[in-house]
Structure formats: C-alpha cells, structure tokens
Specification:
5-stranded parallel β-sheet; MoCofactor_Util/Proc; alpha/beta; XdhC_Rossmann_dom; Xanthine dehydrogenase accessory factor; about 20% strand
C-alpha cells in the first residue's frame, strides 16, 4: 500500500470516518473512498452496499474486478439511563458487536454493583457528551423518562446525525417531548427520526424483552441507514 494512502486511511479511522480501500485488480490502481464521496453508476452501488454491510470482498463491475476493503467505525450505543432495560441491553449489545456506554447522573441508579463491567458514567449527559461526542455511527437510546436528563442528548443525537435515536415512553409522553423539542428550535423533520415508542413492536413486556426490541431496531437502523454521500464522483 502506498504510504500516503496508508496515512490517509489511518487518519480516517482515528476520526471515526467510514472508508473503503478500493483496488482495481486489473491494473493495481487503488484509492480511498469515503462514505461522503459520491461514486456514480454500478461501482457506486457496490460501494454503498459494502458500506451498509461492512463486508469486504471482490465485486465485478462492467467487466472489471475490484477489491473493496471496508473500514467502518465500530458502531456504538449510548444509553441515557441506568435502568433495568439498560442492564439487559448492556449484555445483549456486547454479543451483537456493539460498544455500549451508559450515562446517568442519578448516582442511586448508576452504580458499579448494578452494572458490573459496563462503561458507566454517573454524570449529566451534557457534560459527558462534550468529552465523548456523538456521531453518525452512534445509536442514542434514552430511557430515563426524565426530560431533564433525556431531552439534551436526544437533541444532540439529532444534530450529530446518529444512525438511530430512540426514546422510551408512551405516545402521550412523546407528544409532550415533541412540543419541548420544537420549542427549543429542533426541526420537525429531525424530530420525526426519533423512534418512539422505542423498539420494534414485538409485544415486549419485561425489561429484557424491551431490550431485545430496542437492540433489534438498532440493528435494523444500522443496516438500513442512509449513507452521507456527496454530490459528485
């Protein structure tokens, strides 16, 4: 690999940018394609599919063979609220390959005893997210039922284009949430990205079942996410 391309690849990975290292197997020419780069035609479609699947491999496009080496930032879940659902979700997310952090300023809930081995931060989300900013490869799961805790990270997740933004609560609770977000200037189109009630509708009742529904919806959103593409190739 060309040293310049290697440096570029490493810089993109450190910045949590999705890239494909594309090699033309016919003539050996290679280049880095970022998710934000628009590549038109069948090759662009193959690259888009690779970004969504995260799988590297050879593709045949218009009589030429290309190897697509995909580098995606590790997808992560940020859970706002150290509740029973979060306990179950922490164990399941690890098995599914997601990094997971739990944020809750309520020290009675955010305890090491309840979340042994988890990445747990007992602080206000607005302070935590300054040090750990959200991005397009992050899912935001808000489950405290407390607007003072949930509203800020929900707004931050929409601004950061998180691939998933979900919030616990009934339709009535969410309607009040929408009113608050509109009042502070959040666009209606952005608000419509919030998954509420949270999780796929599987009839979940227990905290563990709700965690399953949430994780399934997160996975679905990740695999079907809209790519952030540019306007030209």
């Amino acid at each position: 690999m060309d040293p310049h391309i290697l440096r570029k690849l490493n810089a993109d990975r450190r910045a949590r940018r999705a890239v494909v290292y594309l090699t033309d197997l016919g003539d050996g020419r290679d280049r880095i394609v970022r998710e934000a780069d628009a590549v038109v035609g069948p090759l662009g479609e193959a690259i888009a599919a690779a970004f969504r699947s995260g799988k590297s491999g050879v593709v045949e496009v218009e009589g030429r063979s290309y190897f697509l080496n995909v580098h995606l930032p590790p997808p992560r879940i940020v859970v706002i609220g150290a509740v029973h659902i979060s306990q179950a979700l922490a164990a399941m997310a690890k098995v599914a390959g997601f990094d997971l952090s739990i944020v809750d300023p309520r020290t009675a809930f955010a305890t090491e005893e309840r979340f042994a081995g988890a990445d747990l931060v007992a602080d206000w989300p607005e302070d935590v997210l300054k040090q750990r900013p959200l991005d397009a490869y992050t899912a935001l799961v808000a489950v405290t039922h407390d607007p003072k805790i949930d509203d800020f990270p929900i707004r931050a997740a929409l601004e950061a284009s998180c691939f998933y933004v979900g919030a616990l609560g009934s339709r009535k609770t969410h309607a009040r949430r929408v009113e608050r977000l509109l009042a502070v200037g959040v666009d209606q189109a952005a608000i419509e990205r919030i998954r509420a009630p949270i999780g796929l509708d599987i009839g979940a009742a227990s905290p563990a079942e709700i965690a399953v529904a949430i994780l399934a919806e997160v996975i679905q959103a990740f695999r079907r996410r809209e790519l952030h593409r540019g306007a030209s190739a």
